[in-house]
Amino acid sequence: MGTSRMFHIFVALGSAFMILLIIIYWDDVGASHLYLYTPVSPGPKVPHPPPQPRPHTTRTPSFLSDIDAFVNQFLEPGTGEPTDTVPVDSSSNQSEKSGERYIPRREWKIHLTPVAAELRERQEKRRRLLQELCANDSVVFPGKNRSFDDIPNKELDHLIVDDRHGIIYCYVPKVACSNWKRIMIVLSESLQQEGAPQRDPLAIPRDLVHNTSMHFTFNKFWKRYGKFAKHLMKVKLKKYTKFLFVRDPFVRLISAYRNKFEMRNEDFYRRFAQVMLRRYANQPTPPASVDEAFTLGVQPSFSHFIQYLLDPQTEKDMPFNEHWRQVYRLCHPCQIQYDFVGHLETAEEDAEHLLRLLRVDNVVEFPTSQRNLTASSWETDWFSTVPIQARRELYKLYEPDFRLFGYDRPESLLNE
Ligand SMILES: *[C@@H]1O[C@H](CO)[C@@H](O)[C@H](O)[C@H]1NC(C)=O
Ligand SMILES: *[C@@H]1O[C@H](CO)[C@@H](O)[C@H](O)[C@H]1NC(C)=O
Ligand SMILES: *[C@@H]1O[C@H](CO)[C@@H](O)[C@H](O)[C@H]1NC(C)=O
Ligand SMILES: *[C@@H]1O[C@H](CO)[C@@H](O)[C@H](O)[C@H]1NC(C)=O
Ligand SMILES: *[C@@H]1O[C@H](CO)[C@@H](O)[C@H](O)[C@H]1NC(C)=O
């Protein structure tokens, strides 16, 4: 009697142990799409924007989205509406919800429907444009002809690698780069929150998002892999999905100016604004600090900023700061064959397409931006104080970016 009972207990324990082993192994294999998420304490929760109707006109034929909706109604409690916003805490009141964990809106959703043809064609067109211009010898710009091996290591510092999902992201400052960096941190699980990886992109503190220790970039390969570094980079470039986001180059410059010189930024004031004031604004001794400058109302104008960019002395002192350095110099689009080229002008659609392409649309969601974005329509106003000759020189300086990424020459600004 006693031995039989003991036997049963052993069998039960053995089975439990086996199941445990299977779970652990499963986790190890990294079945990222089927992850059984362990509850993560939410950390500082950022209120989600209120659910908004999607601004873009619906591109997917409605019967296709109906299929998604049909499937998803079995997967989650809800209406099954495809753009349905699942647990968004619109009350943004932490006290009562502090026990809840972050759930991306699209978690558990499965897309059976293909990505809209229009979006796929858009990517095809952008990729083809890059290939054509890179192969066209009459299109010349610095560094175009060199091979990947000839790119100095320090110029590879904008390529962020996620080995878990096989993704390489070239970040371009002033082009939604904080949001994509947040997503890369979540995907690569490089930030731990109370022993578990941080899963909410918006809960990552701002200073950490831009801290280089959070990101595994190509320029760090030498330290980790030594002489195999370049070889490994090339293997990863071949196998991984590579993407970047760009925007109209002139609008990017306006955005950089607004962000770095219209707002109080001690670092940028000392490194750049003082230089501009001295050189172009007859201020041999500019105010010592940004606070003093703002109090006195002394700021470099947008026109001074453009003068600074055009001044040959600027790049003799040091290469352009990343916020205004050309995308072709940050991301090497002729050496790296990008699989996906997003445009900020179509960021929402492109982000959704990209996350599906990367097969992580069930893990993260692109945070919708609610900030005061620099609009293309402001361009004429901003450039009204910049002399036409300077505008043309500026266009020359950024022409490769305009052409490579399919932005039209801004004729109205350049002709008179
Ligand atoms: C929660 O919301 C109520 C009103 O909805 C408000 O009075 C209270 O201060 C909020 N608490 C916190 C911690 O935000
Ligand atoms: C190369 O670019 C020039 C313009 O810069 C264009 O006229 C020419 O047609 C292009 N060649 C090819 C083969 O696309
Ligand atoms: C780049 O290579 C092409 C031919 O391969 C050549 O015609 C062109 O002069 C080269 N340009 C530079 C800047 O070296
Ligand atoms: C970046 O993070 C590391 C550790 O997480 C910290 O030691 C370092 O001071 C941070 N750097 C900056 C510039 O905040
Ligand atoms: C956005 O910024 C522009 C210029 O900086 C300003 O005129 C406008 O009032 C701002 N809009 C909002 C909603 O803050």
From TrEMBL:
It is found in: Golgi apparatus membrane. Keywords: Carbohydrate metabolism, Glycoprotein, Golgi apparatus, Membrane, Signal-anchor, Transferase, Transmembrane, Transmembrane helix. GO terms for biological process: carbohydrate biosynthetic process; proteoglycan biosynthetic process. GO terms for cellular component: Golgi membrane. It is an enzyme of class 2 (transferase). InterPro entries: Carb_sulfotrans_8-10, Sulfotransferase. The keyword Secreted does not apply. Its EC number is 2.8.2.-. Residues 78-100 are annotated as: Disordered. One of its GO terms (molecular function) is sulfotransferase activity. It is a single-pass type II membrane protein. Belongs to the sulfotransferase 2 family. This is Carbohydrate sulfotransferase. The gene is CHST12.
